[in-house]
Design brief:
By secondary structure, this protein is an alpha/beta fold. About 45% of the residues lie in helices and about 10% in strands. Strand 6, helix 16 and strand 7 form a beta-alpha-beta unit. Bound molecules: S-adenosylmethionine. This is RsmB/NOP family class I SAM-dependent RNA methyltransferase.
């Protein structure tokens, strides 16, 4: 292994250039470090079984009764390390004498956990290394712990900034690659954001950085049952800036499922951007009847519940289609008591479900997508998604939107929504369907009257760094 050149530290965090060598032998008892063990188990399951960290870790914490500071540390380490797996691997690769692919996967998990602590937390380096090495010794013996100790000691010789200066592409030659590594995104995702924003400048950096922040939790107050102001007073949250039904919970407000209004079905958890896209469908004026609405991709039912509640007030019925039976059941649960009929089936074959051409006044297509607009919610997902996923999804999105245009009546409105800023999933799909069917693109910005920074239109692309919402895309079309 070549020793990286030392450079002056730019960060003020405490640094120990040479953390102590591991002590103790193979007979040492397993460590009692519930926070790091929980984080490590999460990293392992994410790698080995494609688990979702944001679903698995809360379960581990509950089962092991890990609370308070340990729970906070486990969360910071597990989510933080998952978010920057690619960056951690670049640094680790520079500190090992064999390719990372040849490192035993279970040891790689440990290295990632240790590397994250060294680069991105205030944990003193000697504590980060020693506690990580203890985890290895407990599970793998002294030989492996020696290897981990040696690699992490190398990592600890530089701060994150210094590693980035050494490893990131030259910004003058590859600005996107540089920002991608600095903000811990795959390069292709940074490219997608740059294409959608139309810049590789400071705004791209802000957009990438926003994915590394933990999002605020939003509730939606069910229309006709409770107002946003009442919900805010009951939950200690504050009325959200844009959605007429939104409440933003204070950071650290705890599990929203335990809040009284949520248990009593007066409210549910829903990103403010999702609320706005559902409400937008209801906003353009239409002539004549306005009582038959359709949600063509309904599971798990967040937007159906909001649309169904609006229809309960004005009179009408929502048909909700969902292909996956278990998700259709979730729609039924989340919309119980509302004027909604749930159909299990494929939205591309609506006739098989008894849904006729030209029968609906408004149709929502909240299509399956890459989810590149909600990376801040799913720590590991940016590294799991592949550019090759896009082709299959865009085919499905196009087919679903064409089916929606067929199902809406002349004069009715179709809303096309994805949680992604990828141009292939957004404007390219809509442009193609407009061209093929002759529907009219509405100025969708008019149906987001509360929102600033909506650009030139006619469609709406929300962004975490601009609006504090997920990066939802919405296009409204009139037949
Ligand atoms: C983005 S999610 C919808 C989220 C939902 N509108 C909400 O607000 O809770 C897309 C949904 O479409 C479903 N889906 C995928 N292919 C489908 C198809 N061909 N027909 C109907 N639903 C489909 C997926 O199972 C998934 O539940």
């Amino acid at each position: 292994m070549t020793q990286p050149r030392r450079r002056p530290a730019r960060f003020s965090r405490p640094r120990t250039p040479h953390p102590p060598k591991p002590k103790g032998g193979p007979g040492r008892p397993p460590v009692d470090d519930p926070a790091r063990q929980a984080a490590l188990d999460t990293l392992r399951e994410v790698r080995a079984r494609d688990a979702y960290a944001n679903l698995l870790l809360p379960q581990i914490l509950r089962e092991r009764r890990i609370t308070g500071r340990d729970a906070a540390l486990a969360t910071e380490l597990a989510y933080g390390a998952c978010r920057c797996i690619g960056l951690l691997d670049e640094v680790l690769d520079a500190c090992t004498d064999r390719p990372l692919a040849k490192v035993e996967p279970a040891l790689l998990d440990v290295l990632r956990l240790g590397c994250y602590q060294l680069l991105r937390t205030r944990i003193p380096p000697h504590a980060a290394v020693a506690s990580t090495v203890d985890l290895v010794r407990a599970g793998h013996g002294t030989r492996s712990s020696g290897f981990v100790n040696a690699v992490l000691r190398k990592v600890s010789e530089r701060s994150e900034e210094e590693w980035l200066d050494k490893l990131a592409p030259d910004p003058d030659k590859d600005r996107i690659g540089n920002l991608a590594m600095r903000e811990a995104h795959p390069r292709w995702v940074a490219r997608v954001f740059a294409d959608s924003l139309g810049t590789t400048g400071d705004e791209l950096e802000s957009a990438l950085a926003a994915d590394n922040e933990r999002p605020a939790v939003h509730l939606v107050a069910r229309p006709g049952e409770i107002t946003a102001e009442e919900l805010a007073a009951m939950t200690g949250g504050e009325v959200a800036p844009y959605s007429p039904y939104g409440v933003r919970l204070a950071a650290g407000a705890g599990d929203p499922a335990g809040l009284d209004p949520v248990r009593e079905r007066l409210a549910s958890v829903q990103d403010e951007g999702s609320q706005l896209c559902a409400v937008a469908l209801s906003r353009p004026e239409i002539d004549g009847e306005d009582t038959r609405w359709l949600d063509l991709c309904a599971g798990p039912g967040g937007k159906s519940a909001l649309l169904g509640a609006l229809l309960a007030i004005q009179g009408g019925r929502l048909d909700a289609v969902e292909k996956a039976p278990h998700r259709a059941r979730l729609v039924e649960q989340s919309t119980a008591g509302l004027p909604i009929v749930v159909h299990v089936g494929d939205g591309r074959s609506p006739a098989a479900l008894g849904l006729g051409s030209g029968t609906f006044d408004r149709v929502l297509v909240d299509a399956p997508c890459t989810g590149l607009g909600s990376l801040r919610r799913r720590p590991e997902s940016r590294w799991r998604r592949q550019p090759s996923d896009v082709g299959e999804l865009t085919k499905l999105q196009r087919e679903l939107l064409l089916a929606a245009v067929d199902l809406v009546r002349p004069g009715g409105v179709v809303g096309y929504v994805v949680c992604s800023p990828h141009l292939s999933e957004t404007v390219a799909i809509v442009a193609d369907v407009v061209r093929r069917t002759g529907v009219t693109a509405l100025d969708t910005r008019e149906s987001f009257p509360e929102m600033p920074f909506l650009g030139d239109g006619p469609y709406v692309q929300l962004w975490p760094h601009r609006h504090g919402t997920d990066a939802m895309f919405c296009a409204l079309l009139r037949k």
